């Protein structure tokens, strides 16, 4: 029986040049904003100028890497300096940081109080500041998700701050903003997008509406990721990847993820590698393991038929079997020069801790079937 619910950003603007519409829209949220950017805030200079031209004064806050609790704490202090709303202009880290700052600025206490797993999981009491997301990479889909992944250097872990009201009020996905993304970032973020289209598709929370997003998104990645990597100036490929990324965000926010993200979450705290690179390193072997476990223990689950369908979509071959999807991804990862977990700095003796922490994540509960500790360890070994 069909049964679903969909929650997303209140307003999504997609298309080349859409960024030019944003200053006038932003003015509707107030006169002063916290503009959250990446390491190099100059990349947002012309956008900032346009905002100021529309009568919105900006306080700039730069997020140099993946967001941590101390960074968010500083951002909240900056935002309390009279900002009425928050705009993030950057990759997934910048968007997650802005999302957390908008949520925590009107709420007292430490960011850790509100965090899942490592914090107190306290509920946000006061209404959040409006949040606007402008992604400049194509991968995380964070512009349409309701959580922010934050690292705690003290715990060596990452955990989510999550609330339905953390969904952006406006998400502007302008593919032209990704045209200067270097090849390795195009590869890592693009493979994160692919993971976020496959995992919700086979998830035990999959639904008929999300399935449509996943099918279309996988098609777009299959036709465009390699082109975007080899020829960053290809506007059509960039548009395709931006669309796929948005579809991945919509999918994961409404149908959950699986073992790749279940393992990527503790690995994000253990390694200094970016999230996309970690997902890329895990995807082929994690998928192979899920398919094997489904064939052995649960051949009647819809997830196995979904993997078969994913294989047909990705390879373009109507005869393809689930295992062919894995092979196709292995070949893609080779062409995109994706590193292994060992390359990313994981030591073999860290695998038991990784397995233990992966089992505790919420992503793992959405995996098409429960995996044993030995199976998760095998994924790590084979991805090492
Ligand atoms: Zn991801």
What hetero molecules are bound to the protein chains? Answer: zinc ion
Oligomeric state of the chains present here: single chain
Give the H and E element order. Answer: EHEHEHEHEEEEHHHHHHHHHH
Kindly, what is the distance between the CA atoms of the first and last residues, rounded to a whole number of angstroms?
A: 41 Å
Walk across the major sheet and give the strand order: 1-8-5-4-2-3
Beta strand count:
8
Mean pLDDT: 94
Instruction: State the shape.
Output: globular
Instruction: Please give the largest β-sheet.
Output: 6 strands, parallel
For the CA atoms, what is the radius of gyration?
Answer: 20 Å
Q: Helical proportion?
A: 40-55%
Can you characterise this structure?
The structure is a single chain. This protein is an alpha/beta fold. It is built from 14 helices and eight strands. The protein has helices at 22-27, 45-53, 69-79, 92-104, 183-202, 208-230, 235-255, 259-270, 275-297, 302-315, 322-335, 351-358, 362-366, 373-382; strands spanning 12-14, 32-37, 57-62, 85-90, 131-135, 147-152, 157-162, 170-173. The chain has a six-stranded parallel β-sheet with strand order 1-8-5-4-2-3, with helices on both faces. A two-stranded antiparallel ribbon has the order 6-7. Strand 6 (147-152) and strand 7 form a beta hairpin. The protein is globular, with a radius of gyration of 20 Å. It starts with 11 loop residues before the first strand and ends with a helix. The relative contact order is 0.12. The model has no long low-confidence stretch (mean pLDDT 94). The chain binds zinc ion. The site of zinc ion (ZN) has 6 residues, from helix 5 and helix 9.
